């Protein structure tokens, strides 16, 4: 294993010399996918597919290949996409060399900022309907791109090194990739760690402000490989570890309670973003809101909103009103909060089972326990946000797609239970606390499994 890790370190360091070229290629490819098809034939007929229509091909490439592919890649190579290929982060870093040296406000450094960015953009993407409308996708990416560049220009580098404030604090998928990377196999670690708490450093080598010698977790590491020194005794090195090992030993890897809020909220939000178009519950909710608005003479709710906030497409025959915006947003938030409350309850009772064994506070114990639900939570996010990938599978293999999804669910459930079992064994709990811990784990896993089933059968209702 050491020989393999040494060879990987050398290969990645060699590849890192060409990252600028990789990023330029990705920038050109992204711009081409978003802009060029808009000047070509508009999809209007059922026989048009991604293979005979440029706009449909772009939508397929973005939402069936790029987005779910990025999430899945993190399980193998960590956030290598961010460090080697991402055009948004790269552009933000490039302009940071020219940017002002404004000090980062405290609210921007808060761990919840990235999670809030994900929640806002996920809802926004649904009200714009970016998966089915390339014009809307261009609007979304254009605004996010402008924000990334603005971030680089405002919070520039002071010592000539590139800075990625956007990637660490504001990137909408940064939270997802951060949690996924805790499950991933590839990790960068300090050869001579300093010990103590994981630090934050504004003027160091790391573009995402990691204090390298105290690095414990992988969530902020974008695998740019600038700190990896294969031939030196100091510096950083690459290790290949077991999938989920960071979560199984989360005490040693800087657990963060704010990151737990993302794990609790994001699965419900992502799943709701997938199911709302076909959910009878959403239809009933929208109708109830519409009747209420009419009864109170809130006619503004029946007017269309700005095109940068909600979908306005003559081709799709969609003209979202403020009523649609409110219905979609409130439905997604409600589902996210309901799921989160149940998962928080599981984490609370799981934390109570550690009360006599672990000397930390209730919040610290909840943080440790909440991470044990991460594998299934990530599957829910993947299925919710990667719907186009699984729709493509359905076109290729037909109804067998459902079997594949169910197999994925069984694998994720089994892995989650196996990983949690390894974590609980460390504490050697007495029978009653151990029973409470397992009830909490299984209840959380079952909820996430049911939520994932909802994505597989989105029109399901109990009524």
UniProtKB/TrEMBL annotation:
Q: Which Pfam families match?
A: Fer4_5
- Give TM regions: 21-40, 60-86, 107-128, 134-155, 260-279, 325-349, 369-390, 402-423, 435-457
Q: Key word Metal-binding present in the record?
A: yes
Q: Which UniProt keywords apply?
A: 4Fe-4S, Electron transport, Iron, Iron-sulfur, Membrane, Metal-binding, Transmembrane, Transmembrane helix, Transport
Which Gene Ontology MF annotations are present?
4 iron, 4 sulfur cluster binding; metal ion binding
- PANTHER family the UniProt entry points to: FERREDOXIN-TYPE PROTEIN NAPH (PTHR30176)
Q: How is this protein named in the record?
A: 4Fe-4S binding protein
Q: Tell me which species this is from.
A: Celerinatantimonas diazotrophica
């Amino acid at each position: 294993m050491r020989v393999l890790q040494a060879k990987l370190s050398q290969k990645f360091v060699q590849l890192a010399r060409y990252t600028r070229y990789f990023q330029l290629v990705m920038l050109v490819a992204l711009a081409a996918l978003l802009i060029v098809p808009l000047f070509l034939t508009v999809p209007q007929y059922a026989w048009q597919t991604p293979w005979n229509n440029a706009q449909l091909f772009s939508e397929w490439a973005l939402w069936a290949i790029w987005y779910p592919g990025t999430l899945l890649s993190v399980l193998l190579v960590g956030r290598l996409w961010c460090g080697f290929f991402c055009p948004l982060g790269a552009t933000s870093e490039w302009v940071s060399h020219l940017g002002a040296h404004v000090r980062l406000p405290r609210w921007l450094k808060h761990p919840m900022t990235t999670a809030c960015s994900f929640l806002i953009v996920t809802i926004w993407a649904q009200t714009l309907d970016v998966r089915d409308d390339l014009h809307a996708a261009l609007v979304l990416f254009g605004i996010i791109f402008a924000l990334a560049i603005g971030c680089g220009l405002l919070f520039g580098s002071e010592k000539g090194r590139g800075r990625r404030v956007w990637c660490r604090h504001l990137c909408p998928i940064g939270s997802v990739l951060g949690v996924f990377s805790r499950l991933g196999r590839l990790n960068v670690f300090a050869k001579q760690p300093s010990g103590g708490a994981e630090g934050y450093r504004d003027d160091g080598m790391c573009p995402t402000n990691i204090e390298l010698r105290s690095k414990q977790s992988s969530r902020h590491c974008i695998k740019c490989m600038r700190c990896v020194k294969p031939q030196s005794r100091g510096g950083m090195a690459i290790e290949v570890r077991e999938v989920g090992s960071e979560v199984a030993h989360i005490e040693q890897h800087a657990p963060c309670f704010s990151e737990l809020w993302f794990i609790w909220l994001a699965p419900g939000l992502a799943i709701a973003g997938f199911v709302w178009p076909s959910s009878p519950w959403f239809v009933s909710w929208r109708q109830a809101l519409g009747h209420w608005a009419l009864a109170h003479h809130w006619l503004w709710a029946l007017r269309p909103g700005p095109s940068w906030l909600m979908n306005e497409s003559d081709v799709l025959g969609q003209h979202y009103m403020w009523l649609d915006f409110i219905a979609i947003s409130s439905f997604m938030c409600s589902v996210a909060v309901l799921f989160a409350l149940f998962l928080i309850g599981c984490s609370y009772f799981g934390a109570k089972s550690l009360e006599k064994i672990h000397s930390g506070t209730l919040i610290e114990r909840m943080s440790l326990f909440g991470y044990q639900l991460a594998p299934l939570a990530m599957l829910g996010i993947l299925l919710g946000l990667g719907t186009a990938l699984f729709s493509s599978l359905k076109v290729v293999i037909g109804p067998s797609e459902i079997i594949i999804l169910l197999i994925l669910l069984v694998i994720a459930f089994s892995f989650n239970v196996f990983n949690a079992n390894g974590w609980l064994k460390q504490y050697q709990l007495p029978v009653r606390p151990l029973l409470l811990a397992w009830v909490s784990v299984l209840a959380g896993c079952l909820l996430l499994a049911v939520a994932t089933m909802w994505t597989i059968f989105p029109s399901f209702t109990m009524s």
